[in-house]
Amino acid sequence: MSPALHAWALRADHVLRAALPTAIAACFTMLSVVPWPIPGAGPVAPDLLLIAVWFWAVYRPRALPNAAILVLGVVEDVLTAGPLGLQALILLLVRGIVPAVTAGRRPPGTGVAWAGFIVTAVAAAAVGWAVASAYFLVMLWPMPAVAQVLATIVLYVPVTAMLGLVLRRLPEPR
Amino acid sequence: MARPADNGLRPANPIRATVQRLGYAAAVAAAVALLLFGKADTILLDELRVFIMDTASPFVAATARPLAEAEHFVAQLRELAMLREENARLREENSRLLEWQTLARRLDEENRQLRQLLHFDPAPGATFVTARAIASTGGPFVRSLLIDVGARNGVERSQAVITGEGLVGRIARVGNRSARVLLVTDATSRIPVTVGPTRLRAILAGDNSGQPRLIYMDQGAVVHPGDEVVTSGVGGMFAPGLPIGRVAGLEGHVPYVQPYVNWSRIEFVRVVDYGAAGAGDQLLAE
To answer: Which alpha helices (H) appear in A46-174, and where do they start and end?
Structure first.
């Protein structure tokens, strides 16, 4: 392989690996709007995009760009017919607040990270429910939001295990 | 030793730090602006919604298909286990339906003769567009369904959407090749209905639970569990007589309705055009 071709291949490899978190988050957005038939609970759609945004905010904030979070949040809002901009705003707040809390500390272990995520997911759902109720001018039935939070919390461990594999293959931050 | 978390808000390069902070602030400002102006339903934002819905619907369909197949497979296994019982149930249902068929033929003939006697001019027949339900998009705040037909198939806003079981909802937003159905269970859904054999008038109001409520009934009106709820046709949004469900019980003094449609198993729906699409919008505007 000529040096120029080798350099080009290295560059392409770098770009593709750097784009992985955004590509995965886009797939998660599609999965987040399709309800899973959970026996006994009816159709529930776990918010996988929230898991992705939280994971990258903790372990590698710059891996998922703000613009990608804004766009994917808006896409999720449109596909779930929710208030336009609400999910995008919640995800951006998670993206902004989490690194401010974890700044200068060692990356948390799975247990601590999961506990932190549970607090984040419950807070995000509560804010979402309150804003959506005000937006539609009705007291929305909270059970779908509760079911979604529970499903999201349960799926946190396997989903972040998969994202952990991606994290190890990302280019080192400059 | 693990190194400290790479804090995206404080990169080493101060210029990059400033650019990143500005980018973050701009993204938050854009989300807030969308939230504030989205409520106004401006044409620009409406077009943005339709564009995103149309672009993303094939991807959502591709994502939903394996999940639907998995659910179908599990349902088939369950049915296999109960084949004997199912067969007996279907035989019983078949004999009951044959009785209804005989009755329907007799009533149809009687109806035709009475219409002739009255020189009744029937309303134009309804036309249907059959659609696949791409996904019953499961946001926690809105009960809706994404379907794979749109303006190019003649679908218009406010048209009724039904299955063989009953009314599903109405078309709330139309893209070129996709449309969104607002389910009768959604918190913003209000449908004029009649209840029971006495044809009491009421409004069926969704609240995001699976069982919408009956509101604005006449004072002293009495409904009983089991009473059938059908569209009244008032307002012109739906044809009269589309079945919705049965009164399931009372919560305080408010009756709640169990819809006929099984929400977790909607694969195909029919969009009904009986020539009055948009009438509901006009009525609301007035």
So the answer is: 48-59, 66-79, 86-102, 110-136, 143-168
What was the ipTM of the complex prediction?
0.86
In one-letter notation, the amino acid at residue B54 is: D
pLDDT category at A108 given cuts 50, 70, 90 is: confident
Distance from CA of A79 to the nearest CA of B (A): 6
pTM: 0.80
Indicate the helix (H) or strand (E) that contains B144: strand B144-147
Rounded mean pLDDT, B78-91: 87
Identify which of B32, B187, B264 has the shortest CB distance to residue A43. B264
Q: What is the pLDDT of residue A3?
A: 83
For residue B252, the Cα-to-chain-centroid distance in whole angstroms is 27
CA distances from B81 to A171, B74, B78, B87, B268 (A): 52, 11, 5, 12, 25
| pLDDT digits 0-9 by tens, B209-220 | 889 999 998 777
Stronger pLDDT, B26 or A143, i.e. the higher one: B26
Q: B-contacting residues of A 62-121, CB under 8 Å?
A: 62, 65-67, 69-70, 73-76, 78-86, 88-89, 92-93, 95-96, 99-100, 102-107
Give the H/E segment covering residue B244: strand B243-251
Candidates B137, B186, B213, B256, partner chain A, best to mutate (most A CBs within 10 A):
B137
Instruction: Determine the pLDDT at residue B165.
Output: 86
Residue of chain B minimizing CA distance to A83: B35
